[in-house]
Amino acid sequence: MPHGQITLYTAKACPYAQRTEIALAEVGAPFKRYEIDLGNKPEWYAPKVNPASKVPAIAYGGPDVSPENASPESVKLAESLILVEFIGDLYPSSGIVPVDPVLRAQARFFIEVVSTKFSPNFMKFISGNPEGTHAALLSGVDAIQDLLPDGVKYAVNDQYTIADIALAPFWARLTVLVQKGIGAYKDEERKKFLKGLEDPKYTKFNAYIQRLLARESFKSTFHEDVVAEVFSSKFGLAK
User: Fold this and answer.
1) How does 18-57 read in b/e, with b if 16+ C-beta sit within 10 Å?
2) Neighbour count for residue 122 (Cβ, 10 Å)
3) Is 37 left (phi over 0), alpha (psi -120 to 50) or beta?
4) Which of 28, 37, 95, 168 is most buried, taking the most CB atoms under 10 A from its CB?
5) What values do phi and psi take at 122, rounded to 5?
């Protein structure tokens, strides 16, 4: 069964948007890519594509038109985790959405832990929120590592899935920002976090992360220079 056309509205700096780009790269789907300037969104974007005015969003199906003129005949979809599963469902042979109900539930639980234990602490840390300490970041790492099975490559087994896609863009941004000292956090907190990650107890987690960031679908959709520029202009440098 042929698929409808896909137009992706995205932004290079956004970790949520990169999730969707990774999924599309993994399944090999053809699509149109439209970069949204998050600081100056087009007036047509909210009324024609996503009323929440956020990225990522997809216009699926309908006639083949320019991204600026999204057809009312296309279905508009948003929210990164929903889009990642949607893409996996369109291309089930890719395996990014596990067929086995147990593995699928485990992948979704992994995503829940990323969404509640890690991502919020990442944003608090970078923005200088007093709750965003190095200890809070490492507690998120602990929660994720506790879910990693022994002897497999990825979050639930040897198959790369939606669970891995959920984490990779956030961890990559954290890595770049703490290595470059970009963010409103205290530099001492940055040093304590990096030192903490060197603890041998994180050997499994660090090896898992290396596999995530070596994946071609990640590398081809990650724009380190843009991430550094956008976050430094927003948050400045550590003090």
Assistant:
1) bbbbbbbbbbeeebeebebebeebeeebeebbbeeebbbb
2) 20
3) beta
4) 168
5) -60, -50
Kind and range of the H or E run holding 22: helix 15-27
Q: In which region does residue 199 sit, left (phi positive, over 0), alpha (psi from -120 to 50) or beta (all else)?
A: beta
The Cα–Cα gap between 50 and 99 comes to 30
pLDDT tens-digit profile, the chain (239 residues) = 568 999 999 999 999 999 999 999 999 999 999 999 999 999 999 999 999 999 999 999 999 999 999 999 999 999 999 999 999 999 999 999 999 999 999 999 999 999 999 999 999 999 999 998 999 999 999 999 999 999 999 999 999 999 999 999 999 999 999 999 999 999 999 999 999 999 999 999 999 999 999 999 999 999 999 999 999 999 999 88
Structure tokens at 151: 């002897």
**pTM for this prediction:** 0.96
Burial of 220 (0-12, 13-18, 19+ CB in 10 A): exposed
Identify the three-state secondary structure at position 201: helix
Q: Where are the strands (E) in the chain, listed by range?
A: 6-10, 32-35, 57-60, 75-78
* Residue given tokens 């007093």 in the structure block: 130
- Residue whose pair of structure tokens reads 């699926």 in the numeric block: 60
